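Limitations
The structure tokens in this dataset are predictions for the assembled complex, not deposited experimental models. Users should treat interface geometry with appropriate caution, especially where small molecules or nucleic acid strands are included. An illustrative entry is reproduced here so readers can see what is and is not provided.
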Amino acid sequence: MGMNHKIHLAVVISLIIGIIISTIPFGESFRLVKPPLVLLILIYWSLAFPENINLGYAFIFGMVLDTVLMMPLGYNSLCFAITLYLTIRLYPQIRHHSYINKMISIFFLLMPYYIISLWINALLKMNINIMNTVSSMIIAVIVWPLVFYILRFFRQRYLI
Amino acid sequence: MKENLHFHNKLTNIKLLIYIFLSISLLTVDNRTKFSEKVRYYTSTIVTPIYYLSSVPLHIYESIDDYFSTKEVLQKDNKILNQKIIVQSAKLQELAFLREQNERLKKLLDPSALMKLKRMTIAEIIRVDLNPYKNQIMINKGSEDKIYMGQVAIDEKGLLGQISFVEKNNSIITLISDPGHALLATNTRTKKRIVISGTGDNQELKGLYVPINADIKEGDLLLTSGLDDIFPEGHMVGKILTVEMEKGIDFSEIQITPAASLSGNKEVILLWE
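Predicted assembly:
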């Protein structure tokens, strides 16, 4: 199996695990402030292999997530595609940052994701709660190093 | 190399535009035609195992918890439950008498208004997190068990919601706390109607379009009115928590606590027509 195939396989497996984890219930209060785990995994891989991970991944896995979570089709694929585009664009700047700076830049990278999802929520008459959105953002920034180190551990072990 | 990179960049831009266009058109079409529900229906055999997988950790946790719950605790629970059964069967005796009386009186008033006891089915809740912006729960009965759209779900304390999507082996209940859900209830004290809508919070509902001079008080009980053709008459919806009036607004702001426990149940009761 070539290196490229291996990378794609690793990305797909980690994204499927991410989708399964995002349906696990952790209690009623946490349900509303869940971080976008699948998006964080996508961001990690696009930082690690910017040549291999393209927007198609964001679009397709956004649709898969929509189907699994029973959200309107196209919801997550739109949010993911735009966020991943920004990540790929800003990638050369982020890569050499310190860890603290990386965490802060994740906060700003996730901002368009939340803004777009709030827009769609408003259009489709779904729940809008700014406090939940802000808490979800903060939790995502806290969860990011965890996602980063776990995925890096597996990448260094099995890929490069 | 530089040119190659430039080409790569250009391609990404075009791809982004294509994906944005595709997503927005999907969202629009889906909003009009409920296209995603069809997709969900046909992919349910692939997707359903994911739900079972994701509820595994909770099951493991619960079985460990059960294993370590001591004999004494179980005996105590058993005693409490037995007492509950005795009290409730005593109440049931009374109910039978009341129903008989009620039927007799109703026959005198209007022979067409007879109320029949509805057939009930218990369904288990599959505990997965779905769309975080909607208040929905998934249950383990579907079209194979003849579950139908709009079927009413209650729990032992009150009204839960209605079935909004049916698959082969599962279905989705939209709770009355969903911001897109509304129903017509009756105030038991004044017999006035009130529109109740969800807020997105499972502990809170709100009353809509109640004029500031309306007779409504904290602690009033609200029952389903039966006028909306979905919910049968006489199920407990909730209790009025606060009534507030704001300057310059014609309607009072009404907070309602739902009677049913909208989160934290393990089973729901489905009513049949």
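Some entries come with short summary sentences. For this one: Residues 86 and 105 of chain A are 11 Å apart (CA to CA).
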